[in-house]
Each structure stands twice: as structure tokens, then as C-alpha cells.
Amino acid sequence: MRLAGTYHPIPYLLERLSHYLPGIVEKNALWIDFDKQLYTSHDNSPLQNHLKVKAQSVRNTAITHEWHNHSDLFTNVKSDKTQLSLEDENALHVLRIYFTSPIDQLKDVVSITFSPNVFLKSLNMTFKGISSQEKHILSSMLCSILQTEHDRVMKERDLLLQIERMNKQATNQIKQLKDNLKSTEQLYSSAIKSILESFVSEYAVELDKTFEVSQELVYKLSKERLALTDLQEIMKDAIFLAYNLNFTEQNIRITEDHVHLTSNQVKMSSPHINTQESDKVKFLLDRYEEAALKLISNHIVVNNKNLASALTPPITPPAISDAVKKNKNKIRYLLQQYPDNWTNIREGIRAIAKLDEASPNSLAM
User: Fold this and answer.
1) Summary mean pLDDT of the chain
2) What is the pLDDT of residues 141-155, one digit of tens each?
3) Residues 133, 279: one domain?
């Protein structure tokens, strides 16, 4: 069922006139539609040329209704109201009702040609028996009914348009959220791929093979949100499984078929590292960054030597290099996961800068 608000009010009224006035001989209309074209009920195509000019002349009026002796909307011939004879009064059997257009504020027109016998609720009589006063009552009553319906259609249309706008906004917001999620997943997958390739490179030297990690495996492990230690153990098993099955090949491809997840490898609740060990690495980077900020505030260059002295308690410069080397995979992961953190030690500490340069984000920039 089509809702009233999806119509222009004039075609909507035309469809329903027979419900209000059974036995109407003819009904016509002239209106400007929402596409700003003029239409009549005779044709689905908009008016052109001289009819368009004539229609605007008909619409340019201030009256709300009038009686005519002709059903053609473009024929304006009728007797002068001030000099009506009885015969003239009887000839006025066409009622024109004018509605203010919501498009251009001129008038849209509905024309109703009455049959010889008029049927309206309790009124049942020959048209010629209706006096001028009774015609006035009839036209006023119809104007009130049809104007109420006209206004209802426009109010419903406004409501539907508002709902449509809200639906479009909701759809756009959902699309934006999906795009953001997809972007985040791609970024996370890129970080996981970098970590996997780092694991593989360590065994490539040991086994004297070239390993390739399939994109399907990257997606699979990205979805699992595994702890870094579990990820490392899974890849170790996958590397040796792929190697043992293809030991005569120089180039070995590691796919999701080489990976088996056990119940002990618990999924993480969020995409960042959440183990106690990784929290220690993050705390280590935070300590280094805090010491780097102290050096900068004292106008001292950030490097291994100066950073080691600025730490509390102080340590030796090699201790910084050893700590970074020992936790390089975790540090690389954290640098990619938090691109806006530890900006000073990313530049000042050479070992950390190398890990940062190797991340996909840095390469993309």
C-alpha cells in the first residue's frame, strides 16, 4: 500500500474524489509537481509552450473556489456573477477548488463536474434544484474536506522526508563505521604480517630456505587476537611443519593449513598486547620516553649515552641496546600499534629507530 505522503496532494485527491462524491461525471486537475513541471490529469507529460503560459495564468489567482459552466480548465468562459439569470445559475455545474501550491505558492486546481443528480451524504436531489446558497454551502463543505486532506498529505510527506533523511544519515554512519573498521583491520593485519615475517626471517637463515607467509594465514591469525608469545609459538610450529613437508624446495609457502590452534591459546579481548610480559615492555618504553623528555627540557641531545644517564636509576648505554634487542618483536609491535607514542626515542635511540623504520606505517609514510 502506498502512503499518502508519497503522492503530490492533487493526484492523491483526484484518486479519492469518488469516495466523497459518488457519481461524479468528470474530474480534472492542474498542478505544479515537485519536479517544478506543470501537469494536468489528461497527460503524464508536463505542459509545454502556450499551454504552460495559459496554465500559469489560471493558477495566478487569490480565490479558493468558484462555479463554472465549462469543465475545460483552460476555458475561462462563464456568466458574470453579478448578472446571473436562473438559466445561467443552472449552467454553473462545474466546481473549481484552488489549493496553494507548496512549490511556488500559486494555485493548483481541482475541477469537479457534477452529474444531474447530486449525491453527498444525506443530500440527494437534481442539480438544477440546488439554489445559489446551497451551492455555496456545498462548495464550502467540499473545500474544507479536500483542504484538510491536502494538508494531511503534505504533513505526512514532510514526516516521511524527515524519516528518509534520518535513514540516510544512519546508513552513511554505518558505512563510515564499516570503512573505519576495515581500515583498522587492514592496519592490524599489516602489523601482524610484519611480525610474522620477522619470525620467519629468523628461521630462514637457520634452515637456509626462503619462506613466504600467505595472506590467508595473516587474516586468520589477525582474527584470533592472540598474545605475542602464542603467535610466536604457532609460527614456529608452522614453519617447521611446512619445512618438513617441503624440505626439497628452496621457496616454501606457509599457509593456514600449517597452523593448528589449541584451546590453551586463548584469544585476546582487544587488538593490542595484553600479557604481563608485554606490559613490562610498554612500561620500559614509557620510562625511556620520560627520560628523553627530561633531556629535551635541559636542551640535551637524546641518544643512548645521555638516555642511560637520565634514567632512574641510571644504567649503561649497552643495557639499553640489549633491552631493545631482547624485546625487539614486542617493541616493533607496540610501535606499530601506538604510532603516536614514544616520538622522541623513536628518533633518538638508534635501535628503536631501526625497528620503527621497518614497520609498515613508517614505510607508507
Assistant:
1) 83
2) 889 999 999 999 999
3) no
pLDDT in tens, 269-299: 334 444 555 678 988 999 999 999 999 988 9
Query: Which region, left, alpha or beta, applies to residue 66 given φ > 0 means left and ψ of -120 to 50 means alpha?
Result: beta
DSSP letters along 45-90, please?
Answer: SPP-HHHHHHHHHHH----SEEEES---TT------GGG--HHHHH
Residue 250 lies in a domain: no
Q: Which residue did the predictor score with more confidence, 121 or 330?
A: 330
Answer with the one of 107, 132, 164 that is the final residue of a domain: 164
Q: What is the pLDDT of residue 365?
A: 38
Average pLDDT over residues 184-203: 81
Strand arrangement of the beta sheet that strand 38-40 belongs to: 38-40, 26-32, 107-113, 94-100, 65-68
Last residue of a domain, which of 126, 141, 164? 164
Domain annotation covers residue 68: yes
pTM summary value = 0.50
Neighbours of 96 (CB within 10 A): 24
Are residues 160 and 284 both part of a single domain? no
CA–CA separation, 160 and 158 (whole Å): 6
CA angle 12/14/20 to nearest 5° reads 100
* Boundaries of domain holding 130: 4-164
Rounded CA separation 162/156 (Å): 10
CA–CA–CA angle 82, 86, 87 (5° rounding): 105
Q: CATH number, domain at 115? A: 3.30.450
